[in-house]
Specification:
Layout (H helix, E strand, L loop, with lengths): L6 E8 L6 E6 L2 E5 L5 H10 L9 E3 L5 H4 L2 H8 L3 E3 L1 H6 L9 E3 L5 E4 L2 E7 L8 E7 L2 E6 L7 H7 L4 E5 L4 H6 L4 H8 L7 H11 L6 E5 L8 H13 L7 E4 L9 E4 L12
Helix pairs in contact: 8-9
């Protein structure tokens, strides 16, 4: 990292049950939260937004499920990227392999990367020690919370004051009940250690609305149990009652890169970049 750049960029490279990866760029530091695609596919998608895996300064890992860690080892080794991970999570990943710079942290711990302050917080998911992240920069706060069966007071408190939010909107409750999944899997998804529904995402967002919130990414959306229009409708109902907060809504996709939130200082400007 050489110097700083006065802008912030957030982009979902992939989002869904078959692979997740989120780019966050601020203060000249480029982070990837989770690496659920192959290393080559992550690099290819980064090139769609004029970056490459060689530009990444660190990988942050939320939990050990395959759709979040599939590409960690090859990506980190090929491009010499430090990996920040909870020790129990690292131990739970099969065939992780040797990573030159494996940086352990505990859930709830804060650490510094470049000019960024990274705060982790515990989430409720059926993983060994899952976490979400808050990234504080000179350009504001970015909050990241996916793969959580319900939103705790801790999650809401940590995400408060975010300029950009990445929130899970995994399923529509009725679509899940009527859908093709076997009943035990439906029970797991809708449990307090499963995934947030559209309604639960909207309820969490309602707690987080403030005049400085500019963008909300709806992430980890199920292809089988959700419809982007239904997710948007739930969020729209919350925003309709908000007077001083009308953030841009971005939808994560499994098969392609999302639009990017891009804001430059001193006056934030939102630009939608390639990927749709």
């Amino acid at each position: 990292m050489e110097g700083t750049v006065d802008f912030v960029r957030v982009c979902l490279l992939a989002s869904g049950s078959r692979g997740n990866a989120t780019l966050i760029e601020a203060d000249g530091c480029r982070l990837l939260i989770d690496a659920g695609l192959s290393g080559r596919e992550i690099d290819r998608r980064l090139r769609e937004i004029d970056l490459s895996a060689d530009d990444l300064d660190a990988l942050l890992i939320t939990h050990e499920h395959h759709d979040h860690v599939n590409g960690i080892g090859p990506l980190a080794r090929r491009h010499q990227i430090p990996v920040y991970i909870v020790p129990q999570t690292a131990a739970a990943i099969p065939r992780l392999g040797k990573i030159a710079e494996l940086c352990h942290f505990a859930a709830g711990e804060r650490f510094i990367l470049g000019g960024l302050e990274i705060s982790s917080f515990s989430t409720t998911h059926d993983a060994v020690d899952p976490v979400g992240f808050v990234i504080d920069s000179s350009e504001g706060r970015i909050g990241y919370a996916t793969d959580l069966g319900h939103s705790t007071r801790l999650v809401a408190d940590c995400l408060a004051g975010s300029r950009v939010l990445v929130l899970e909107a995994n399923h529509d409750e009725q679509m899940l009940l009527d859908g093709p999944y076997p009943w035990p899997l439906k029970q797991r998804i809708q449990s307090r250690h499963g995934h947030l529904s559209n309604r639960a995402a909207a309820e969490l967002l309602q707690q987080l609305l403030w005049e400085g919130l500019e963008a909300v990414f709806l992430a980890h959306m199920s292809d089988e149990n959700n419809d982007p229009l239904l997710a948007q409708q739930e969020i729209a109902q919350i925003l309709a009652a908000a007077q001083d907060c009308q953030p841009q809504i971005y939808l994560g996709r499994q098969a392609k890169v999302s639009h990017c939130f891009f804001a430059a200082a001193p006056e934030p400007v939102i630009k939608e970049l390639s990927g749709q």
